[in-house]
Specification:
Distance between the termini: 21 Å
Strand order of the largest sheet: 1-16-17-15-12-9-10-11
Oligomer: single chain
Strand content: 25-35%
Shape: globular
Number of helices: 7
Mean pLDDT: 94
Radius of gyration: 19 Å
Largest sheet: 8 strands, mixed
Helix content: 25-40%
Number of strands: 17
């Protein structure tokens, strides 16, 4: 498993009975987690000293019990700074388990010895965008949600990258890639974190299992002649790391050689010393 274990401002303290206790900077949050199906004792007193808890509704959805929690605050990951904002559907705008992928992309950019162009698709609030820009790359950030792109701009500014070479694009990712093909634009790194299900700004329907292979194949047409890496991340149940490895191995590798690896990604749990699985990633590289 690829483990994101270098955090200082975030900590997964404990998880049990379908919930997890986390520290985000100085605030303690309790959120649902479908992976934490074990019924271990909640011995840490901070379970009951939390600043906020997201409660599921039996009729669907849920809501935050925020108490005195601020609307937003900043946390740091090394040289990166992110704005945390508790949102609907339990999210905070940041997936800390992705830090292992940020670290890897930053290493590849810094060791390339040449200018690197990155295409970040389904880019959400821009954590990977910020990481790649901080490492010195030019980045094209694409997401269908205008609010998420605006949040990405905030994260870039918070990390001292307000003037960095980042293109902020609100668009359907597949349509954008098709236009980039026609324009002849190329990228050395492609990162994608597609949702299980979603709609584009024009009502376009995206269902990951039906679309991811064709989309990965489409993206090969915007890779440069000397690409560095392609990364796919997924939180979709049933779409395993091995499936994504096979997709990259059958779309990118025949064109550029290289090799593909994949694994679950996870966060260390302070209380148990174990690691909570949080998704899966596959990476093609030279």
């Amino acid at each position: 498993m690829w483990i994101s274990d270098k955090w200082q401002d975030f900590e997964l303290i404990d998880c049990s009975k379908g919930e997890k206790l986390e520290r985000w900077g100085k605030f303690y949050l309790v959120r649902p987690d479908p992976q934490a199906i074990w019924d271990t004792p909640r011995s840490d007193a901070r379970w009951n000293m939390r600043d906020a808890r997201y409660r599921r509704s039996q009729t669907g959805g849920g809501a935050w019990d925020k108490g005195g929690l601020p609307a937003s605050w900043k946390i740091n990951y090394g040289e990166l700074t992110f704005n945390v904002k508790p949102m609907n559907f339990k999210h905070t705008g940041l997936f800390p388990e992705q830090a292992c992928n940020w670290d890897y992309a930053m290493r590849k950019i810094r060791s390339a010895g040449r200018p690197i162009n990155v295409l970040n698709l389904f880019a959400y609030t821009g954590a990977a965008t910020v990481a790649c820009a901080k490492a010195g790359a030019s980045v094209c950030h694409v997401d269908a949600a205008k609010g998420m792109v605006a949040w990405g701009r905030e994260n870039a500014a918070a990390s001292g990258l307000g003037d960095a070479p980042i293109r902020w694009i609100v668009d359907d990712c597949a349509k954008f890639v098709e236009r980039e093909i026609r324009r002849g634009n190329k990228y050395d790194i492609i990162i994608m974190d597609p949702p299980s299900y979603g709609r584009g700004p024009g009502g376009e329907v995206w269902k990951l299992e039906d679309a991811v292979y064709d989309f990965a194949s489409l993206c090969t047409a915007v890779l440069s002649d000397d690409p560095v890496m392609v990364l796919i991340n997924s939180y979709t149940t049933g779409l395993s790391a091995s499936v994504m490895q096979y997709i990259l191995g059958s779309t990118v590798s025949p064109l550029f050689g290289g090799r593909v690896t994949s694994d679950e990604i996870g966060l260390p749990v302070t209380a148990s010393g174990l690691v909570l699985p949080c998704g899966a990633s596959a990476v093609w590289r030279r």
